[in-house]
């Protein structure tokens, strides 16, 4: 099972910074994110998390409120919780400790400080990051070792049974992506899915979409249900392989919907 970390902060640039440092130090880590404590609780409903990194001051449900709620939940009473805040005063640290925090990280912080505290808390919880990540990377390499998983059928979702079985350990589902410069949707394999964004791999089309282009996302669910339809924009785009003629494109799509029904459906989908 992959190492799973939840990053909670209402500032997107802070979340992106923390995720960057985590991915650089923990290749293969599975990162979930939330913009406040309320959405963090939605993520945690059906998702096992190994460690929580949370800001203190957030709208709706603050980091302190999130911490207190988790400590009352048997599933997360002992999960490492690192509070990140610009409030580094003694009173605030004491308050966090009384609420059950595992560690405290004051802003601004260095990558080394962040990683040191994460590793320390994981080990205290009996989790060996190297062992957990090694297994996750091996599973990804085994489960997604062929470009044919994406290129079969010119990008449409018509993999053979053997290819589907091979891809299943590394993927989190399938989605159809309709970019603003494409007349037909492209089939994709979902690699990461959160309440805010989708990371997916799809076959390289003749014309690549651009950053900030609008995207219509149809996440495929069970056969007896309609696809979950979401709207977003291209937040990041990069080669899926380390070569200029790559046949795989990796895309990060940020959702822009403000629909409570879609939010609940996505929460249930993430929770499995």
Question: Can you give a write-up of this model?
Answer:
The protein has 272 residues and is α/β, with parallel strands linked by helices. It is built from nine helices and eleven strands. The protein folds into two domains: 4-137, Response regulator (Rossmann fold, 3-Layer(aba) Sandwich), CATH 3.40.50; 145-271, Thrombin, subunit H (Beta Barrel), CATH 2.40.10.220. The chain has helices at 12-25, 37-44, 63-71, 90-99, 111-124, 129-143, 148-151, 161-167, 260-271; strands at 4-8, 30-34, 51-55, 81-85, 103-106, 174-179, 186-193, 197-203, 214-219, 228-239, 248-255. The strands form two sheets. Strands 6-7-8-11-10-9 form a six-stranded antiparallel barrel. It has a five-stranded parallel sheet with strand order 2-1-3-4-5, with helices on both faces. It is globular, with a radius of gyration of 19 Å.
């Amino acid at each position: 099972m992959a190492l799973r970390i939840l990053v909670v902060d209402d500032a997107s640039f802070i979340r992106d910074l923390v995720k960057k440092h985590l991915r650089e130090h923990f290749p293969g880590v599975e990162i979930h994110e939330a913009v406040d404590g309320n959405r963090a609780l939605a993520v945690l409903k059906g998702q096992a998390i190994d460690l929580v990194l949370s800001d203190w001051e957030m709208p709706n449900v603050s980091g302190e409120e999130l911490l207190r709620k988790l400590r009352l939940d048997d599933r997360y009473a002992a999960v490492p919780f690192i509070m990140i805040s610009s409030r580094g005063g003694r009173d605030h640290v004491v308050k966090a400790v009384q609420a059950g925090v595992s560690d405290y990280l004051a802003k601004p912080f260095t990558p080394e400080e962040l990683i040191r505290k994460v590793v320390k808390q994981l080990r205290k919880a009996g989790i060996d990051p190297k062992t957990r990540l090694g297994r996750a990377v091996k599973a990804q390499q085994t489960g997604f070792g062929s470009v044919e998983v994406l290129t079969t059928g010119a990008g449409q979702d018509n993999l053979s049974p053997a290819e589907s079985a091979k891809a299943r350990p590394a993927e989190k589902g399938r989605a159809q992506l309709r970019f603003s410069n494409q007349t037909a949707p492209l089939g994709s394999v979902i690699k990461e899915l959160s309440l805010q964004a989708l990371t997916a791999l799809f076959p390289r089309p003749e014309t690549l979409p651009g950053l900030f282009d609008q995207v219509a996302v149809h996440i495929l669910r069970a056969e007896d249900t309609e696809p979950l339809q979401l709207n977003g924009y291209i937040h990041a785009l990069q080669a899926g392989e380390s070569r200029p003629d790559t046949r795989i494109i990796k895309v990060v799509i940020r959702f822009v919907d403000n629909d409570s029904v879609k939010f609940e459906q996505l929460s249930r989908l993430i929770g499995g």
